[in-house]
């Protein structure tokens, strides 16, 4: 049914005010339980996705925490001792309450920095010691540091968690040991002419962890105790079956080698719901040794893996990519060409904000799903510490009340001492509910660099990829509005009194009455405007010689753009 302009304006007006109604009576309902939900940064229509790609480590295979971290931590300490570090460091045990993802390690001063999206320092820790504000200013002018790769190392991966804690342990050990003297950029051994820059401590620990992962015993330990280190779930084969039923293609894209991948995937699919099917049967395309993020730029040579021996076949594979076969390396360019995928057809699910998400989105335009296992704990605090959030709101109201009747003419200066102390205490208590270094996403009311990366590069995110199980393949993930300060603090004007608990029908009736009155006003205004436009036209006709094609912009009369939907979808509407 086509509306004329008057009817359309009327209908749009009602819809707008219905929004006010729903906003005041409880906003959009979310029907899936919190731990099953997928959260949205940019709208995404699952129906449009033809290829579902998955990373393996920490995405399909969720490692048990803190078991795996504790093992990696222990092996790295053994490696450091074999490199000449004091054997006393073997007293350290992994503490999962310390490390959060996304911390910056300043290799110059040996500090961990929790920063906001722009590099402003929110928290600074040296070893286990939290620096006070004036100490931070002494080392970092304006409490600011630039993300310079020569100096700053970002601990982005979940595999970095034990590395973060070990760095803190070792820096703390040397900075407080009687045998060493602390300087701004390293530690000096008192007895010898020995200086250890924090930069070299960081390099040693980096190498120790690389060794543990690549050549050390961690893989062997994991593979011989799969139950201890890896979670498995009946829903995984079911989710893949459902994807296939909806004609979706599934691919695996992992940095792990074939031997390790095969054993982990075998374990994950060794569940009743897989009915004895080998894991490779669930994937259309399998790529190991992908070397992400390199895969998303120049990549490496694509080769086929001999699944009987695990060895790579000689020569570059030039296609086609066949189901059930395993390939090693390659690049995104070659891979997507061989499987016939366009950027926006692919939803890639991974846990590494840089290697999986940022690069695939920025360089290839893939749609992205970031797995954040920590989200479960973050949401638990968000829900359970409601009293603290309410307390902070009350304190904010009290702060507003103190200034309520004051303007620029006043000489009264309200005493904020108690209120400021209470606000700081409440924010501190909120931060500490998450852990020693607070939340992954925020410090007080300020968001972290990590949170900003998630918002920028992950179209959707959730605590596990299995949450896709709870959404139909026609689902449209729609992002909530990102409100600026002026939008979140100023309420929309409501056209009717929402304090009286009216039914939706009654509300509509009242709205219609109000809308009619509004419409009469609008009609009068429109008549005036038409009159004005006529006069303008007359003036133009009188000046036919003008060389200007359009003398002013015209308001679009149809929908030409819609940032909330996929662009091709908006065009088809
Ligand atoms: Mg991973």
What's the helix and strand layout?
Blueprint: H1 5-24, E1 39-40, E2 44-45, E3 51-54, H2 67-82, E4 103-106, E5 111-115, E6 121-126, E7 129-130, H3 133-139, E8 152-155, H4 161-176, E9 180-183, E10 186-189, E11 194-197, H5 198-214, H6 218-224, H7 226-229, H8 235-245, E12 249-253, H9 258-268, E13 285-288, E14 303-305, E15 326-328, H10 332-339, E16 346-350, H11 353-364, E17 367-371, H12 375-384, H13 386-402, H14 417-434, E18 442-443, E19 446-447, H15 449-457, E20 460-462, E21 476-477, H16 485-489, H17 504-542, H18 567-572
Parallel strand pairs: 3-12, 3-16, 12-13, 13-15, 16-17, 17-20
Antiparallel strand pairs: 1-20, 2-21, 4-5, 4-8, 5-6, 6-7, 9-10, 10-11, 14-15, 18-19
Helix pairs in contact: 1-17, 2-4, 2-5, 4-5, 11-15, 13-14
Bound molecules: magnesium ion.
Magnesium ion is lined by residues 55, 57-59, 350-352.
Structure notes:
- There is one protein chain.
- By secondary structure, the protein is an alpha/beta fold.
- It has 18 helices and 21 strands.
- It has helices at residues 5-24, 67-82, 133-139, 161-176, 198-214, 218-224, 226-229, 235-245, 258-268, 332-339, 353-364, 375-384, 386-402, 417-434, 449-457, 485-489, 504-542, 567-572; strands spanning 39-40, 44-45, 51-54, 103-106, 111-115, 121-126, 129-130, 152-155, 180-183, 186-189, 194-197, 249-253, 285-288, 303-305, 326-328, 346-350, 367-371, 442-443, 446-447, 460-462, 476-477.
- A hairpin with a 4-residue loop joins strand 10 and strand 11 (194-197).
- The longest helix is centred in the last third of the chain and has 39 residues, at 504-542.
- It is globular.
- The structure holds magnesium ion.
- Magnesium ion (MG) is lined by residues 55, 57-59, 350-352.
- Magnesium ion is lined by residues 55, 57-59, 350-352.
């Amino acid at each position: 049914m086509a509306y004329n302009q008057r009817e359309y304006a009327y209908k749009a007006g009602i819809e707008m005010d219905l929004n006010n109604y729903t906003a005041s009576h409880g906003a959009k309902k979310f029907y899936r339980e919190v731990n099953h939900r997928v959260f949205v940064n940019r709208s995404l229509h699952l129906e449009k996705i033809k290829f579902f790609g998955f990373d393996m480590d920490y995405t399909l295979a969720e490692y048990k925490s803190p078991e795996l971290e504790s093992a990696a931590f222990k092996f790295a300490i053994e490696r450091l001792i074999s490199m000449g570090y004091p054997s006393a460091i073997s007293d350290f045990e992994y503490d999962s309450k310390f490390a959060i993802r996304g911390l910056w390690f300043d290799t110059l001063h040996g500090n961990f920095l929790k920063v906001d999206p722009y590099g402003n320092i929110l928290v600074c820790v040296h070893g286990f010691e939290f620096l006070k504000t004036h100490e931070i200013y002494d080392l970092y002018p304006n409490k600011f540091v630039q993300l310079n790769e020569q100096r700053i190392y970002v601990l982005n991966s979940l595999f970095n968690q034990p590395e973060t804690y070990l760095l803190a342990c070792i820096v703390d050990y040397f900075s407080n040991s009687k045998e060493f003297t602390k300087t701004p950029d390293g530690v000096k051994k008192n007895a010898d002419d020995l200086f250890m820059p924090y930069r070299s401590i960081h390099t040693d620990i980096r190498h120790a962890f690389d060794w543990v992962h690549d050549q050390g015993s961690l893989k062997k330990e994991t593979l011989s105790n799969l139950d201890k280190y890896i979670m498995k779930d009946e829903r995984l084969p079911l989710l893949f079956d459902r994807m296939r039923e909806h004609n979706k293609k599934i691919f695996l894209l992992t940095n792990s080698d074939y031997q390790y991948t095969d054993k982990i995937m075998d374990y994950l699919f060794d569940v009743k719901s897989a009915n004895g099917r080998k894991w490779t049967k669930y994937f259309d395309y399998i790529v190991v040794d992908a070397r992400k993020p390199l895969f998303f730029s120049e990549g490496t040579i694509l080769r086929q893996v001999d699944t009987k021996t695990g060895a790579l076949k000689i020569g570059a594979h030039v296609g086609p990519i066949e189901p059930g076969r395993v390939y090693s390396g390659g690049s995104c360019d070659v891979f997507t060409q061989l499987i016939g995928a366009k950027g926006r057809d692919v939803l890639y699910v991974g846990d590494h904000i840089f290697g999986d998400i940022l690069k695939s989105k920025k360089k290839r335009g893939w749609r992205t799903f970031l797995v954040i296992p920590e989200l479960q704990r973050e949401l638990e605090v968000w829900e359970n510490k409601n009293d603290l959030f309410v307390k902070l709101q009350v304190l904010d109201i009290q702060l507003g009340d103190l200034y309520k009747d004051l303007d620029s003419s006043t000489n009264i200066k309200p005493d904020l001492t108690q209120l400021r102390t209470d606000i700081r205490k409440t924010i501190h208590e909120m931060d500490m509910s998450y852990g020693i270094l607070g939340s992954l996403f925020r410090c007080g009311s300020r968001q972290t660099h990590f949170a900003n990366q998630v918002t920028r590069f992950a179209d959707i995110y959730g605590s596990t990829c299995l949450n896709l199980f709870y959404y139909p393949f026609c689902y449209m993930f729609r992002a909530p509005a990102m409100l600026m300060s002026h939008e979140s603090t100023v309420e929309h004007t409501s056209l009717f009194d929402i304090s009286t608990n009216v039914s939706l029908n009654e509300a509509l009736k009242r709205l219609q009455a109000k809308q009619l009155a509004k419409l009469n006003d609008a009609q009068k205004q429109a008549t005036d405007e038409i009159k004005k436009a006529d006069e303008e036209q007359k003036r133009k006709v009188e000046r036919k010689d003008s060389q200007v094609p359009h003398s002013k912009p015209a308001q679009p009369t149809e929908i030409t753009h819609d940032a909330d939907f996929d662009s091709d979808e908006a065009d088809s509407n």
